[in-house]
Amino acid sequence: MLHNRMTKNLTSTDEKPLKEKTSEDFAKYFQTTYQPPSLKDARRRRRKDIDIHYDFDIRTDMQQVGVGKRFYIRTYGCQMNEHDTEVMAGIFEGMGYEATTDVNDADVILLNTCAIRENAENKVFGEIGHLKPLKLEKPDLLIGVCGCMSQEESVVNRILQKHPFIDMIFGTHNIHRLPDILREAIFGKEMVIEVWSKEGDIIENLPKVRKGQIKAWVNIMYGCDKFCTYCIVPYTRGKERSRRPEDIIEEVRHLARNGYKEVTLLGQNVNAYGKDFEDSSYGLGDLMEELSKIDIPRFRFMTSHPRDFDDRLIDVLAKGGNLMEHIHLPVQSGSSEILKIMGRKYSREHYMTLVAKMEERIPNVTFTTDIIVGFPNETEEQFEETLSIVREVEYDAAYTYIYSPREGTPAAKMEDNVPMEVKRERLQRLNQLVNELSLKKNKVFEGQVVDVLVEGESKKNPDVLSGYTRKSKLVNFRGPKSLVGKIVPVYITGAKTWTLDGDLVTESKR
User: Where along the chain do the CATH 2.40.50.140 domains lie?
Assistant: First the structure.
């Protein structure tokens, strides 16, 4: 990948200031220097390009630059983006900045973006528009767009042409470069663009500011090599590259020493962990088994790809203990024909065989999933196959989406021939079924006592506590605030579609 950085000194031989350039200037620049997503080039990735760095440091002249100043980061999208935000917050604090929850108080604002769906991009551009008056009011305010959207040529072009007040654009592989990017934005007084940097690196000692001290996310790998035809992630996140087991284990041990109760292992395709190791056959099952020996009550992982879910991992999960029996297993479609067009590399039959195997070997296993409706060429019969697989598996919950083409992906070149009114009608039918099943599965818990990891006050009622069960069910109950961060028994009194209500089981009630 190219490492593009646009500053005053790199805009071309034309000395016209960057923010005065026209759309024709930008088009000329991109024709010569910018590399859009390329399936052909991306599939030529070489695993040997992966380097691991343990030498991250903030340059001396940037270590106090933020003293007396504040930063604000708005995060869109997945848990990986949330975790990236934790890293950027750690870097900001290393430069002396303090966090704020009010954009009006911020000296630096970052929008950490998601590119997986068109709706997510529209929200970001809406927010950029809302920030313009604030930028006019505070000219020294620095605004940056980072994350997955920044890796898309069309997005960068649109920002350059329509939102030239943006100060920084940088990609998912450039987070560790934040101090240098910020330095150029502060002292160079020009827009800084740094995207498509070398994607094969793993930076190990990045600081983090985690949200709370109860649950933590731990990246175990980055990128994806599956190249589903609808998905932009292999281009925005790069090739699959796994962290070394010893680095992950040490990070988790550190979390255990600091009292964390739950760790979720993250990866775009977490089941592919270790497949890029050339010196061993160490995989996710091996890692989970080692982590299960650490004194943390709960371990989870996401997101899984059915193609890479192997018997070794199933055998380890079957042991239970602090390995949770809730599996998020995206199916995307119940039709083998649509799955083939999607490039998912498994059939309906393969998926159902995997589900049956886990149901047989993992006690009390439950599933959640992702589903796309209205993919190009999806017929009513093929959509009915999706409904039928939902009925067969009986998912506890499903994240459902209308297909939207992402520029640069193979599916974007397909004719989007399912009318929007049909897509919406199918989504409505699917959601109705998912809701019915979710309520059915929740009602099973009525009259049972479940262990709940208490996370804090309910969002709707500060007098009510809320937390999650082993199966990732949200439970609301009344109890003292001193229970936050603890795992407590709760008697379930009622079930709703997405939540459970209960009473705290005290010693006197046992």
Answer: 449-509
- The pTM score is 0.87
Q: CA 469 to CA 309: how far, in whole Å?
A: 24
Residues 332-381 pLDDT 10s: 999 999 999 999 999 999 999 999 999 999 999 999 999 999 999 999 99
List, as residue ranges, the binding site for [4Fe-4S] cluster. 78, 114, 148, 224, 228, 231
Mean pLDDT across the chain, nearest whole number?
89
Give the span between the Cα atoms of 368 and 366, in whole angstroms: 7
CA dihedral 334, 337, 343, 348 (to 10 degrees): 40
Q: Yes or no: is domain 449-509 CATH 2.40.50.140? A: yes
Class of domain 202-443: alpha beta
User: Hey, CA dihedral for 271, 301, 426, 76, is it positive or negative?
Assistant: negative
At 42-90, the pLDDT tens digits run: 656 555 567 888 989 999 999 999 999 999 999 998 888 899 999 999 9
* 99 DSSP β-pair partners: 71
Q: Which residue has the tokens 């988790």?
A: 252
> 216: closest CA among 173, 246, 257?
257
Q: Residue 366's pLDDT is what?
A: 97
Q: Of 75, 145, 135, 149, which Cα lies nearest the Cα of 106?
A: 135
Rounded Cα gap, residues 408 and 268, in angstroms? 19
* Sequence-ordered list of residues with C-beta below 8 angstroms from that of 465, at least 6 positions apart, any chain: 454, 456, 457, 458, 476, 477, 478, 479, 481, 483, 484
Name the segment(s) of the chain with CATH classification 3.80.30.20. Answer: 202-443
Collect all residues with Cβ–Cβ distance below 8 Å to 1 and sequence separation of at least 6: 35, 173, 196, 197, 198, 199, 238
What distance in Å separates the CA atoms of residue 254 and residue 251, rounded to the nearest whole number? 5
Here the tokens at position 351 are: 């998926």
Range in 23-32, 173-182, 278-287, 414-423 with the lowest mean pLDDT: 23-32
Residue ranges of the chain assigned to CATH 3.40.50.12160: 4-198
CATH topology of domain 4-198: Rossmann fold (3.40.50)
From the list 330, 334, 327, 398, the residue with the least C-alpha distance to 367 is: 327
Cα dist from 269 to 240, 273, 347, whole Å: 8, 8, 18
